[in-house]
Amino acid sequence: MRSERLTRLWDSAKHELQKHWEASRREDLGEQVCAAQNAVTDVLEDYFDVLRILPSTANDNTILGAMREMLNRLNEINSELNYHLIESDERKLIVPLAIQAAEIAGLDPGRYPDRDPTQAFRTF
């Protein structure tokens, strides 16, 4: 059931993310940016894959570890483009998605400031 919910969430979010990237690409941002956008999508898909295979008994530290790894990878991709890839619009897509996925996996966001456990790990 949890795996199915994560799959549905990712399928929907991936579509929205792709629409966002396509709109950005129309602005002719270059091949490096397109490759970075694809890398961001891949990192998020990996995050969902990790959460899907976690046991139902996974604790907050395990879920946060997956979140931390995903955000570290996104921070790295963003830094390669001088922090101009993941900005406000992208953050508004990515952060709620990451939190919702973690919540489905069993994390209680209410235990974190502003219900946002990503704040400790992200630079965007």
Q: What does this entry show, briefly?
A:
This protein is mainly α.
Mean pLDDT: 93
**Binned strand content:** under 5%
How much helix, percentage-wise, in residues?
Answer: 55-70%
**Helix/strand/pairing class, anyone?**
mainly alpha
Distance between the termini: 32 Å
Shape: globular
Number of helices: 4
Oligomerization = single chain
Poorly predicted runs are none
Order of helices and strands: HHHH
What is the β-strand count?
Answer: 0
Task: Give a written overview of the molecule.
- The protein has 4 helices and no strands.
- The chain is an all-alpha fold.
- It has one domain.
- It starts with a helix and ends in a 19-residue tail after the last helix.
List keywords for this structure.
mainly alpha; 124 residues; 4 helices; single chain; globular
Sequence-ordered SSE layout with sheet pairings:
Layout: H1 2-25, H2 31-53, H3 60-80, H4 88-105
